[in-house]
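Re: weekly structure request thread

Next one in the queue (71 aa):
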Amino acid sequence: KTVGTKQTLKALTKNSVSKVFLAKDADKRVVGPLLDLCQANHIIIEEVESMTVLGKACRVDVPTAAAALLL
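Done, posted below.
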């Protein structure tokens, strides 16, 4: 898995992602490039209630805008 926008973006550019999780309250300027890459590569996107919920689901102590499952 990857946690965080930068790490998720890196994994997407390497075509090693099977699914992406995005927080509904994330800044669209931050997650916009992720959305574009996911749509271009037909990657499944699942929205999560909030950045706090996504951070807890990923077992990190900070809110996170994005996470991904790797192939």
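DSSP finds three helices and four strands in the chain. The longest strand covers residues 17-23.
Next request, please.
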